[in-house]
Amino acid sequence: MTHKTYLFAAVAALASACAIAQPSFGNPSPNAGSSTSQAANAAADQAAYQEVSYANKDRKGPALVVIPGDIKSNNASFMQKFTANNIADFGELELSSANFVVLERSNLGPLLNEVSLAYNLGDVSAARKTMQVGRLKTTQWVVKFDILKAEQIAENKKGFDGRAVGGLVSMFAGGMGGFAAGQAVSTVKTEESTGVWLIGMRYKIMDANTTEQVAQGYKELKMEVGTAATSVMGVSQSAKGGVGLDTMVQRLVQTAVWEIDNKHK
């Protein structure tokens, strides 16, 4: 092979690698690269979406439809943020990733309400009637994900306010040095707060022809959110983070789909 041929091959390989490289994006934040940026990005990386390696992904699963489930939690924050459709969207995404044949709800149009009603009521005749329409004829399963619990179950706070201690230092140390030390201690203030939520999800698989339950399971995960702040002589530092409700619901769906893929495919 000539030198020119080697060069051409190298250029072609480089061009091919560039063509298939994943998209990359810049960071326009004025704090990009700073210590606060690095800390915040490190925390965000822990909460970012992570694909699950489903064990039986190479084997195609039954054709199914995901219908909106029930949200039985009375927590106001959760109810304001989520609808059953949000959770069903996550379900469609993950079941597709696990190589189930998913008929998307958007393709059902108005028929989705009839399907949901039939299976929620266990109405066999209505279910069989709806399943004779178009692509629904090949459907074997109807799957739903229900939120049964979403509540903050624990909260812990601690902190230090240096004003009282600083006053004592100034009083008993005496002199200008004691006064200066007391003033410095008075500026110290720390606060730390941690809250833990429990969120529970049930999945239910129903036979598309009979509405009978094929399988069900329950998964529960903890969500921790925290804040920390420190201030000393006018210099302050604070941090806030934790996995959000969106991420927790998606992780619960992933956990449920992992079990469906392992036990029921």
Ordered list of secondary-structure elements with their pairings:
Elements: H1 3-20, H2 35-47, E1 63-66, H3 76-81, H4 84-97, E2 101-102, H5 111-121, H6 124-130, E3 141-161, H7 163-173, H8 175-186, E4 189-207, E5 213-232, E6 235-242, H9 245-263
Parallel strand pairs: 1-2, 1-3
Antiparallel strand pairs: 3-4, 4-5, 5-6
Helix pairs in contact: 4-9, 5-6, 7-8
**Could you spell the SSE succession in H and E letters?**
HHEHHEHHEHHEEEH
Form type:
elongated
Q: Calculate the mean pLDDT score and round it.
A: 78
So what's the oligomer here? single chain
Secondary structural class? alpha/beta
Uncertain segments are none
CATH 2nd-level architecture: 3-Layer(aba) Sandwich
CATH homologous superfamily (4th level) name: ABC-type transport auxiliary lipoprotein component
Tally of separate domains: 1
| Assigned CATH class | Alpha Beta
What is the fold-level CATH name, i.e. the topology?
A: Rossmann fold
Task: Estimate the strand proportion.
Answer: 25-35%
Radius of gyration equals 28 Å
> What's the total number of strands?
6
Helix content: 40-55%
What distance lies between the first and last C-alpha atoms, to the nearest angstrom? 52 Å
- Spatial order of strands in the largest sheet: 2-1-3-4-5-6
Largest sheet: 6 strands, mixed
